[in-house]
Amino acid sequence: MDEFRPTKIVEVELTQQLPDLADAVEADGYTRALVTALVHGIAVGQVEMDLADRPIPREVFATCFWAELKDPIRAHFAADGLDVPDALGQEGLASSALPECRRRRVDFLAADPPSVDVIIPTRERPEQLERCLRSILATEYPVDRRRVYVVDNAPETDATRRLVEDRFSKGVVYLREQTPGSSAARNTGVAESTAPIVAFTDDDVVVDSWWLEEIARTYKELPQAGAVTGLLLPMELETPAQAWFEEYGGFSRGFETRIFNLTDHRVESPLYPFNAGQFGTGNSMSFRRDVLSDIGGFDPALGNGTPARGGVDTEVLLRTILEGHTIVYQPTALARHAHRREYAALRNQLNNYGVGLTATFTKVLLTRPSVIPLFLRHLPAGLMFALDPRSAKNARKERTYPAELTKAELYGMAYGPIAYLRSRRHLRRLATRE
């Protein structure tokens, strides 16, 4: 394998003076950077930069960024009712007028916003959980309109309980769910919560200060939305495993708002709607409480901690669409994820993804026989999507991407149907013991 070079994660607000990227990156010994462009605090795109052979001063950085991202930058300024820039200079794109995006945020929070409950399933990761909780409690959302539920799933120690009780006694509720599985944990949180909007994230995520506001405001501005998912960017790319996860696909679903349903916002794709990964990720998703109740909550036979190992977010989002509801992918609801640093952990993660994917399809076909003809029509395209190196799923993989990771996912897919049946049988056994 070629010598791995870690990538510096950089975020740049383009309405302020641009940083000297050479100083910001080379001082830490990096020769590569993944730069996220923000306009008024909203991410509009990313640019990868190789700094090995040429330091990039401000003026060159500005030119490179404008060449890559001028269209989304100009579109953002136009939507804000501001003069559309013709270029990006070293001093940034400052404007004396209050941008519309900021006014909407402030006005929404001042106009009696709805209550939002945030549910975090966790198990024996108190350090990561603390970081996640601090980010949620630091959001701009009114303290009296948010509540956080930490669901300790089949814990072996009292570390999570002590963390919540000792350091987060206000605004955070500790719950315990003894049935293993992230779905069971989420269902426990939902049963205890009371807000009309229920948001979910994981303990390895740090949310942006406007994350909750952007979720809640999307429901107001798009009342047809039954679920809203957000943009998830990598927190770091320090190891080969983290870089390979981004090549695998990562968690980002792009920087444009997208609407999904089975009617007026149906995607023209031979895989739709079974390619449910495009709808978003369980690390940053939310539901109207009545919609989540209508579709039956989370399937306890799926998710981490069950024999099915994964699939919980894919299945619940797919079920949301199949039940006739609308999902909105809202990239202004920004969060950042700590990818697994070790290769063995990544291999296990991708194997679990494969198991969870086909376990999800097994569940759908068992409970919805009416979709079997549609699923079979999509099956050839789905196999090409999974196996063809040129497909959208695989095209980002560099030549150094380990073949073992691809095999681990495919082996997981082969095992998924069996895993789901075992998971259902395991749940029945647990129920008979109670």
List keywords for this structure.
434 residues, alpha/beta, Spore Coat Polysaccharide Biosynthesis Protein SpsA, Chain A, 2 domains, 9-stranded mixed sheet, 3-stranded mixed sheet, 13 helices, 12 strands, 42% helix, 19% strand, globular
Detailed description of the structure:
The chain is an alpha/beta fold and 434 residues long. The chain has two domains: 8-100, no CATH class; 112-343, Alpha-Beta Complex (Spore Coat Polysaccharide Biosynthesis Protein SpsA, Chain A), CATH 3.90.550. Helices cover 42% and strands 19% of the residues. It is built from 13 helices and twelve strands. Strands 4, 5, 6, 7, 8, 9, 10, 11 and 12 form a nine-stranded mixed beta sheet that branches. The protein has a three-stranded mixed beta sheet with strand order 1-2-3, covered by helices on one side. The chain is globular.
List the helices and strands and how they pair.
Layout: E1 8-13, H1 21-26, E2 32-39, E3 42-50, H2 58-79, H3 100-110, E4 116-122, H4 126-137, E5 146-153, H5 159-167, E6 172-177, H6 182-192, E7 197-201, E8 205-207, H7 211-221, E9 225-234, H8 240-248, E10 258-260, E11 284-288, H9 289-295, H10 312-322, E12 326-337, H11 343-367, H12 372-387, H13 403-433
Helix pairs in contact: 10-11, 11-13
* Domain count: 2
User: At the third CATH level, what is the topology name of the largest domain?
Assistant: Spore Coat Polysaccharide Biosynthesis Protein SpsA, Chain A
The helix count comes to 13
Helix content class: 40-55%
Weakly predicted, low-confidence segments: none
Name given to the CATH architecture of the largest domain: Alpha-Beta Complex
Per CATH, the class of the largest domain reads Alpha Beta
Largest sheet: 9 strands, mixed
Overall radius of gyration:
22 Å
The secondary-structure element order is EHEEHHEHEHEHEEHEHEEHHEHHH
- Give the rounded overall mean pLDDT: 93
**In total, how many beta strands?**
12
Strand content: 15-25%
User: How far from one another are the termini?
Assistant: 52 Å
Shape: globular
